[in-house]
Amino acid sequence: MPLPDTMFCAQQIHIPPELPDILKQFTKAAIRTQPADVLQWSAGYFSALSRGEPLPVKDRLEMPVATQKTDTGLTQGLLKVLHKQCSHKEYVELADLEQKWRNLCLPTEKLRALLQLDPCEKKMEWIKFLALGCSMLGGSLNSAMKNLCQILTTDPEGGPARISFKTFSYVYRYLAGLDADLPRSDIESYLDNLKENIESRKNGMIGLSDFFVAKRKI
């Protein structure tokens, strides 16, 4: 026997007072992030929101710049989102990383191809994964380090994009070490040259201008 139609009036419908703001923030986040799959991204958004975790939301609207050769779907903005979500731990579980990657509507096969550059079983040092992601964005070591500085810096957008020399040198050695054709002596010579440019500073920070000046001297 079908149930009778239920009539509702305004007094019967309870709308949680926080719902309008939640939906407003969700809409703004979706516009700013421009997910390829809104449903997949929305699941990740509300899952993170319910757990009080960093949301899969870009800082600003970003138009991907890619070619047929380098089009992986990954952008600097998306990599920065992953950094916000994963960098609170030194190591990231690969299963959790894959879920966050999928929530950003990125192709799983690209993640697996990236991880093949430095295979590991269940977890990976986050800074190393970030470095591999930066190398995927540009393809060259020079471009990878530029992307790294722009993601890690606390400087305002368009500023010098400074990060600590300790972090820079660690990532540079790691990425350069993956290239069997790059002599170890060249790696250390470059870093020594770079250190000379900033050794007079007390904060031990390196910016993009220092990076490219040192690069020209080699």
Written account of the structure:
This protein has a two-stranded antiparallel sheet with strand order 1-2. It has a two-stranded antiparallel ribbon with strand order 3-4. Helix 6 crosses helix 7 and helix 8 packs antiparallel against helix 9. About 2% of the residues have low confidence. 23% of the residues are buried. By secondary structure, the protein is mostly helical. The chain is elongated. The protein contains 10 helices and 4 strands, in the order αααβααβααβααβα. It has a domain of 79 residues: Orthogonal Bundle (Recoverin, domain 1), CATH 1.10.238.
How is the secondary structure organized here?
Layout: H1 19-33, H2 38-51, H3 76-86, E1 91-93, H4 94-103, H5 108-115, E2 123-125, H6 126-138, H7 141-152, E3 163-164, H8 165-177, H9 184-198, E4 205-206, H10 208-217
Please summarize what this structure is.
It comes from Loxodonta africana (African elephant). Its main location: other. The protein has 218 residues and is mainly alpha-helical.
